[in-house]
Specification:
Elements: H1 4-20, H2 36-39, H3 44-48, E1 75-83, E2 89-98, E3 103-113, E4 117-120, E5 126-130, E6 132-144, E7 149-162, E8 165-179, E9 184-194, E10 197-199, E11 204-206, E12 209-221, E13 224-236, E14 242-253, E15 262-269, E16 272-281, E17 284-293, E18 297-307, H4 312-364, H5 368-381, H6 386-416, H7 420-433, H8 438-454, H9 458-471, H10 476-498
Antiparallel strand pairs: 1-2, 1-18, 2-3, 3-6, 4-5, 6-7, 7-8, 8-9, 9-12, 10-11, 12-13, 13-14, 14-15, 15-16, 16-17, 17-18
Helix pairs in contact: 4-5, 4-6, 5-6, 6-7, 6-8, 7-8, 8-9, 8-10, 9-10
Amino acid sequence: MRRLLPLLLFCGVPVWAGVNVPFRDRPANAGLAGEWLTALAASARDAGLGNASVSFPGAASAYANPAGIAGNPMGEAVFSMSPLFSAGQFQSLAVAHPLTPKQSVGVTLLHLGSGEAEKTDFLGQSQGSFDEQDFAFLLSYGAQVSERWSGGVNLKAVSQSVAEYSATGVGLDAGVRVKLSESFSCGAAVQNLVPPELRLNTATDRFPAVMRLGGTYGYRIFGRHFSWTGEYDVYHGLGGRRIARWGGGLEALLLPTAPLPLTLRVGFNHREYSFGWGIEKGPARFDYAASFHELAVVHHFGISLRYGVLSPLAEKKLASEWRKVHAREAELDAMKDEVQKEKVRLAREAELRTLLLEAQLLFENAKYDESKRRLRRVLDERPEDPTALNLRREIERREARIAAEGFCRQAKGFYDAGQYREALEMAKMALLRDREFADAQVLASLTQAQIYLEELNYEGAEKHLLKVVRISPENQEAQRLYERLRDVLELSEPAAAKGTP
């Protein structure tokens, strides 16, 4: 909801503008002949977008550009009605039906009726009332000539009746539509390329040529679709006059996944501001728009219905193609998942290699605790990694040696102080940490030899001194003790001999 609020506010600004911003000044005249065919929108959706519809596809687009009905795979019918001020009314009904995947025909019926007005004679005396009725009938053909380009023509019949006078004329429209990308399309049309002419009494009204050019650009934000549309029209009037008209709008599909998807619209053109919305359910859509005109607010109501026109054989073929598309999509999704997994795996491999490298550098700098922390992260994921296991064993050996050296230093202190039993305990503690530590082995044997000498266990002392010599032949303490032991043994031999009977 927090994301939707700015969008709703943004769409509401033009509505506020439509009520509060003044309209531009225009000359007071009755307009151009047949101008109602371009000034009024053929659908409530177009009305909500400022009637900037020359680049739109769909059945109602034939009113602005007959190329818009080409390439639509489904048929469509659009009905719209707009109660106008002074009891006037405007209705339109448009139907587009595809002949082939690239060709379509369409029929559009338009009606503009005025309210009743008082009829007077030249003396100003009332002669009853009269009204004006305008009709237009469009027979359209559109074809998609390439993947991007479409073209179309309208054969147009118009009629006008005012009081007891009436007239009928025939004309021709033509247009093209170009899809430049998935997001951007544009359209151009010439209405009244062959202009209808209406002669009610003595004067003849000739419809001016109207050149319409516009584009539509769509994009997605937060999973919601937005599209901008704009249009610029040029009327080539009588006497070589050129009159420019413009319009544009924004359409936002704000609730695409709702049971009734909601679309909001805002628009503007040279004479009014507009706001509208639409809801869609399956093939049906209901549209509403309000146009804020300087005379009044005009309400537009519309409904459109899409219908299928494929033959059973075409439906089967289409279903088969869709199955292939879905299978391919599933295959691509699986490949995408595998690629994503491989990317994750490679990224993790790189991270583990980095951890191993950091652990090795920390080990070389004697930062064993930090090195072990990194190794632990590696071994949590790869318990059998040989490099990590070897490095961890080497760290354990280094730590054991450091601990053994500490105990060995304590043992040496006790030994130098003549506290041989305490020294032996410390030496044994060192050997518990590192059994291969030669210094601890030497110190333990020397200490044990000293203890045996005190206990007059010369055989045991000699055994341990010989062990020291095997480990460290140059050990001077062992040599000194061994010489002392030999002196003791030599002195004890004559004493033993004298005591022999």
